[in-house]
Structure prediction request, 158 residues.
Amino acid sequence: MKTTRPHSTTRPAQVVRPRPPAAGDAPPEIPLRWRWHYQTLARLRERLIGERGEHLREAAEPVEPYSLHQADSATDEFDHEFALSQLSAEQDAIYEVEAAMQRIIAGGYGVCEQTGTRIPAARLKAVPWTRFREEQEARIERTGDTAPASRQGPLITG
Prediction:
């Protein structure tokens, strides 16, 4: 990382996370059993990035603060806020998809981050970006607790 001197106008270099290859590209180190998943995730990522671009253009359109009618102004504001919320959701989805692609590359794909057990093949096929077994995902959604199951509850000692 680049360092700066006090009172310098130079900013430190931005750390950029490496991005997985584009759709259709499967590096040779991807195990055959995960190639379909990797390629599906890459296509999904490309689609999400395209949709994000469309919503970014919509969100960038200026909102007229003083429309002739209050209802028109409220509708414009709602549309703008909706586009911003779509951007946020799409960015979260892109992050999850890219994280799954990185897990494939690193060798940790298909293992539940809560329990350390294998995620069933049917679940990976239905939700290829998942990080959890179905039971763990349901528990997280129900309780909001993301601590690994092995670390839940108080530590009981002698």
